[in-house]
Design a protein that fits this description.
- The complex is a heterodimer of chains A (456) and B (629).
- Helices cover 47% and strands 17% of the residues of chain A.
- Chain A has 456 residues and is an alpha/beta fold.
- Chain A is globular and about 85 Å long.
- About 9% of the residues of chain A have low confidence.
- Chain B is built from 20 helices and 22 strands.
- The model of chain B has no long low-confidence stretch (mean pLDDT 94).
- The chains are: A alpha/beta (456), B alpha+beta (629).
């Protein structure tokens, strides 16, 4: 049996295009896709024939991320000649990256530059002419990736990854010296010490992942939904933030029927804004589609700006919205503060951690809003340029390393013998070496001789 | 002086050490007319360093040589004085067998085996010249002016080639253990165009048993019962001797540091590169200055000798300094040194000049094995000797070569490391060198390699049938434990509680119990009354397969990926400098090493994953071109 690792990547250009496609290829492509994709019809992808597609949702941890279409290709009738699933996502760059991450978490590995094409070659799917052109492409890409690797190598990430790698390499070297030189007086590593060291390495890698997510947010923006019942001033807020009239602003409820997207830069924080149709019950069929979309958007957004009209009392629709944004990253925006306040603020205070008073019409309260966003999104004073890991491939490698360490810790606590633990630690080191562009090679062995006085 | 024609062979092996022996036996057993030349008939299969075979990772090599049909394991079993399985409790991947052996007996047994082997001539002769005639045959000239014509040559010269011994200020040309060196062959090889370099190694003193005071020394005994190396040894060897442990101290250190300038290494006389893993005591003391003491093992050299080997105490300091520092060690205060410690420097080659068959890339029909290839150790030498011998024979017979990949064996890993990464110091095998070590265990060498040995024709039908029967029993036992359900009982509860693992309330399959790290076949015996009577080796295989199933699966998946790349062969005539897209460093490295396949290419330092992609595309492009033509 030829078992191929299953790889995935975004195979369309990573720009704000209408649709981006995630390609998953390998023996487990369909199984993995089934873990993140749920079709509307309830049919699993495993049940589908090649060259068929299904509409549905991608989700992570049971939370929907994005609506997408999954196309199933069965080996050998696919680009790579393996089983392939392509997920066409409709959300922007950020959502697509989230879907890709879910795919990685479900068991796929990040594809290397040109790896789909490489597999297509290996499986005889490309001919001479195609081979020539792809080769040019890859060689130009490899130059680009070499430059990227160089940046990583010299950068802060490399320093921190190396620190963690060093700790792990020391442990692996110690374990190997202990196994390869049983008759030298090499101290045994206490399980608890090893456990502590591995746990710390794991936490440090998780911090890097977390920072990546922050960096990602800084680089690609925070997917932000402006929510609220009709006519509380959502579009006015949007326009205020965006600096010009994008939405049609009238005082007739339900003017904004679709989601309007706009990226704005507020004090170096990029918000990918979606203005939604006011959320309320409606008989208007077209408008009700807009309302459904808005609800989905709220569920998948990274930040929700929830707008209330302080000149009116809270009604059931407001309360429905409050319920909907419960447990999300939401900020209450009390609009129309230029008018007399009629609203019961106690209810709002109970439901939201952050409340900002704003007069969208007069442009007051923007500074407070920016501070609130920074707090809610835990951004702090980080600069986008400091983001440590730059792409999903690197993230996947950090993740892989974390998984290996987790497995090693589990093995250790289960009472497995240390030979298995050592191999897992070496795999974790391997992933980090790949990240920094180094080969694993004889690093561990060199360390053995550097630190331990061994040999006859 | 005129030469005379002395004979004709298919395979000629230069050197009858551990590499030469396996090479000659394999070639002769495969039906080739074989000669093996030794400089001294009494030095065949000599163990000029430690009187032991095996050890960590080396034990794996011996097992593998045996599983393929080599000789080292059987002979070691016949000559065992004490046997131990090292690393028990550290996991099956690092279990390694080591046997103290009677070194003179080992030498005699091996020599006799060579003498008795059909198709094989053991000859005492120093080869002084090597040349190739216009038809491609090799011509070997002996010191006595005999000229042998041979289709293939395997060089296995150990530390003899250009050997030079150093003891303090004293230095002279010599082979190991006071033998003659091979003084001319090195120059002849260089004239031919073979590039050589200098490596060094060393050995400790041998002291007289009756001069050692054992009374306060820690005793180290063998295992009871012992496990043999060879799958052919049906009666495990008996332990006949004890070893002892002692330690150096501050006085030892002081004497060494006071005299460090008298060491040829620190005095700058030796240019050869020594191994980090086999350091002299002065190396250890200088490099690890904080360490207060160093351990040593006192090991008997044989049953009918009083010579005792001091493992860990190699040195190239002057003899008078040696005597002084050995006398600081507890138990050795009055030790009488029978043979002093010495360092030896010798010629070897850069193994990246070789193919994975151990044939020189630039000299068809010329093979190398052992220390000549830059390795160190009897077992590493034997492993290469076996592979070189088989491949020389297969070449003579016009058959496909034997190439063992990294996932098949430590032997494959050793050779791949040598020919792909090269050796900057004498290469020693270690378990940490194998990324697949959870599946390359010493306990399953037969499963991995015996079918290959059988197909080669080096495993007897009787032994092969025995092997197949064992595999069958393993399969049956796996089935049995998978379907046997154990009901909860006070006996079971007591076992589980006493092993600190969770109790069960309902019936549980035996396989689930064996999965638990806390449990094993032995402790589960009381609740498993229907267990068949089987060889412990069968239970061992089943238990490891069950306990390590997840990790083993993971390694097999990695192996599949590696093998896919390994199957993408790179043609001999690729012009790497002409491939656009390859980085300059990769072009240079690839041109120098000329890997056999994509997998090997990817392991060369300086070749990036992107370069590998470019190579693969180049390959497909070439194939496309051929199809068009």
């Amino acid at each position: 049996m030829n078992h191929n690792t299953t790889i995935a990547a975004i195979s369309t250009a990573q720009a704000s295009a209408g649709i981006s496609v995630i390609r998953i290829s390998g023996d487990d492509a369909i199984t993995i896709a089934d873990r993140v994709f749920q079709s509307k019809s309830g049919k699993t992808l495993s049940e589908m024939k090649g060259y068929t597609c299904a509409l549905g949702q991608a989700h992570a941890d049971h939370e929907p991320i994005d609506e997408c279409i999954a196309t199933v290709f069965r080996a050998p009738h696919s680009y790579t000649g393996e089983d392939v699933v392509e997920l066409s996502c409709h959300g922007g760059v950020y959502l697509t990256a989230q879907v890709l991450r879910a795919v990685f978490d479900a068991g796929a590995q990040a594809a290397q530059a040109g790896e789909f094409t490489k597999r297509a070659f290996l499986n005889g799917k490309l001919d001479l002419v195609e081979a020539e052109s792809v080769m040019d492409l890859i060689s130009s890409r490899s130059k680009a990736s070499a430059r990227a690797a160089l940046n990583v190598k010299e950068g802060a990430l490399s320093r921190r990854i190396n620190e963690i790698k060093n700790t792990l390499t020391d442990q692996a070297a110690h374990l190997n010296a202990w196994a390869d030189y049983p008759e030298e007086d090499i101290p045994e590593i206490e399980n608890s010490t090893l456990n502590d060291i591995l746990s710390i390495a794991k936490i440090n890698l998780e911090v890097i992942l977390k920072e990546y997510d922050n960096g990602k947010v800084l680089k690609d923006g925070i997917d932000t939904v402006i929510a609220g019942k009709p006519n509380v001033g959502k579009s006015t807020l949007m326009n205020l933030l965006a600096g010009y009239d994008k939405s049609i602003v009238t005082s007739v409820a339900g003017t904004t029927r679709d989601i309007v997207e706009e990226s704005v830069n507020l004090d170096n924080i990029i918000l990918n804004l979606s203005d939604t149709a006011g959320i309320h019950h409606t008989q208007d069929e077209i408008e009700s589609i807009g309302v459904d979309k808005a609800k989905n958007k709220v569920n998948s957004a990274a930040l929700i700006l929830c707008v209330f009209d302080s000149s009116k009392e809270l009604d059931d629709e407001d309360r429905a919205i409050i319920r909907m944004v419960k447990d999300t990253n939401a900020i209450a925006i009390i609009n129309k503060t230029d008018l007399p306040c009629q609203m019961d603020m106690a209810e709002i205070n109970d439901a939201f951690e952050k409340i900002v008073n704003l007069s969208a019409k007069h442009g007051e309260g923007i500074r407070e809003l920016i501070d609130a966003i920074k707090q809610v999104c835990e951004i702090g004073d980080v600069n986008a340029a400091d983001a440590l890991i730059y792409n999903e491939r690197q993230r996947a490698l950090v993740k892989q390393s974390i998984n290996c360490i987790t497995e090693a810790i589990e093995a250790l606590n289960m009472g497995m013998t240390l030979d298995a633990v050592t191999v897992l630690i070496e795999e974790a080191i391997g992933s980090l070496c790949e990240l920094t562009g180094e080969r694993v090679s004889d690093e561990v062995i060199d360390r053995v001789f550097h630190h331990f006085c061994v040999g006859k | 002086m005129s030469t005379y024609f002395a004979g004709e062979y298919d395979v000629a092996v230069i050197g009858a050490g551990h590499a030469g022996i396996e090479a000659a036996l394999a070639a002769a057993r495969l039906g080739c007319r074989t000669a093996v030349f030794t400089i001294n008939m009494d030095a065949v299969g000599n163990c000029p360093c430690n009187p032991s075979i095996g050890g960590t990772a080396k034990g794996h090599l011996v097992r593998e040589i045996d599983a393929l049909g080599g000789e080292m394991g059987r002979t070691a079993d016949e000559c065992t004085l004490q046997s131990r399985m090292l690393n028990r409790g550290k996991g099956p991947a690092v279990h390694s067998l080591r046997a103290q052996i009677d070194r003179r007996k080992y030498s005699a047994v091996m020599k006799h085996k060579l003498e008795l082997q059909e198709n094989l001539d053991l000859r005492q002769a120093e080869i002084t010249d090597i040349a190739q005639d216009e038809k491609g045959s090799w011509l070997l000239t002996t010191r006595m002016l005999g000229v042998f014509q041979t289709k293939t040559v395997i060089i296995a010269t150990g530390t003899y080639l250009g050997g030079r011994i150093y003891v303090g200020e004293v230095s002279y040309e010599s082979g190991p253990d006071g033998t003659f060196p091979a003084a001319f062959l090195g120059e002849s090889l260089r004239k031919l165009g073979v590039k050589t370099r200098r490596f060094k190694t060393g050995t400790p003193a041998r002291v007289k048993r009756s001069s050692i005071d054992f009374s306060d020394l820690e005793v180290q005994k063998g295992d009871e019962p012992t496990v043999p190396f060879s799958y052919d040894t049906l009666t495990p060897p008996k332990n006949k001797v004890d070893c002892h442990v002692s330690w150096t101290n501050e006085n030892t250190k002081k004497i060494i540091l006071d005299n460090i300038q008298r060491s040829p290494l620190y005095g700058g006389k030796i240019e050869g590169v020594g191994p980090r893993y086999c350091p002299s005591l002065e190396d250890k003391i200088v490099r690890f200055a904080d360490k207060k003491r160093h351990q040593l093992f006192i090991e008997p050299c044989g049953e009918d000798t009083e010579e005792m080997y001091l493992q860990g105490m190699s040195s190239s300091l002057p003899e008078e300094v040696q005597i002084a520092f050995y006398h600081t060690i507890p138990g050795l205060e009055n030790a009488m040194i029978m043979r002093p410690a010495y360092a030896i420097e010798y010629d070897c080659i850069d193994p990246t000049d070789m193919l994975a068959t151990l044939e020189f890339k630039n000299f068809p029909g010329l093979f190398g094995a052992g220390q000549f290839n830059g390795s160190s150790g009897y077992e590493e030498a034997a492993a290469q000797g076996f592979v070189a011998g088989v491949n020389a024979a297969l070449k003579v017979q016009g058959k496909d070569p034997l190439i063992l990949d990294r996932a098949s064996s430590y032997i494959g890993t050793l050779i791949d490391d040598l020919v792909t990464k090269g050796a900057n110091e004498p290469y020693r095998m270690m378990t940490s060198r194998s990324e697949y070590r959870l599946i390359l265990r010493q306990d399953n060498a037969d499963e991995r390699l015996t079918p290959i040995g059988y197909e080669l024709g080096l495993i007897s039908e009787e032994r092969y049938q025995r092997f197949l029967r064992k595999q069958e029993l393993i399969k049956e036992e796996k089935k049995r434990v998978a379907k046997t359900v154990i009901s909860p009982s006070p006996v079971l509860s007591e076992i589980l509680v006493s092993r600190e693992t969770s109790d069960v309330k309902t019936g549980i399959r035996l396989i689930e119990l064996l999965k638990r790290p806390e449990l094993n076949y032995e402790v589960l015996a009381p609740i498993d009354p229907d267990r068949p009577e089987l060889d412990p080796a069968v239970f061992e295989q089943v238990e490891i397969a069950i306990k390590y199933e997840g990790y083993i699966k993971k390694q097999f998946a990695a192996v599949e990926n590696m093998r896919k790349l390994e199957n993408k062969l790179l043609p001999d005539d690729i012009d790497y400098r002409g491939i656009t897209g390859l980085r300059l460093e990769a072009q240079e490295k690839l041109s120098a090493i000329r890997p056999l396949n994509i997998g090997q290419a990817s392991r060369i330092s300086g070749v990036s994953p992107a370069d590998v992609n470019v190579l693969m595309i180049y390959l497909v492009k070439q194939k496309g071109r051929q199809n068009h033509e």
